[in-house]
């Protein structure tokens, strides 16, 4: 719901936008401790990359690449029949139940 006229949209309740919550910080610290107990992040990823399980090695490589170089942008192209333009048909349904083409 929008703020009433003359009032700020942010009323001061809750965390400011973009701030990290306590749970996020706790999880981050716990993950860091787990990596350190296993020889650091380099040792953990090396173990995963050298895994005989190809799925584990692939997922580790994908994760490392995403953190190291950024996750690739996903794009989706949508086309109509035979690669042509997408057609849009709008139909109006009147209150009496009859249908009328709008385009």
Q: Please outline the major beta sheet.
A: 2 strands, antiparallel
Q: Tell me the structural class.
A: mainly alpha
Contiguous runs where pLDDT drops below 50 for at least 5 residues: none
| Number of beta-strand segments | 2
Write out the strand line-up for the largest beta sheet, numbering strands in chain order: 1-2
Percent range for helical residues?
25-40%
The average pLDDT value, as a whole number, equals: 80
Radius of gyration: 26 Å
Structural features, described:
With 103 residues, this protein is mostly helical. The protein has a domain at 22-69. It contains three helices and two strands; from the N terminus they run αααββ. It has helices spanning 22-37, 41-49, 54-69; strands at residues 91-93, 99-101. It has a two-stranded antiparallel sheet. Strand 1 and strand 2 form a beta hairpin. The protein starts with 21 loop residues before the first helix and ends with a strand. The mean pLDDT is 80.
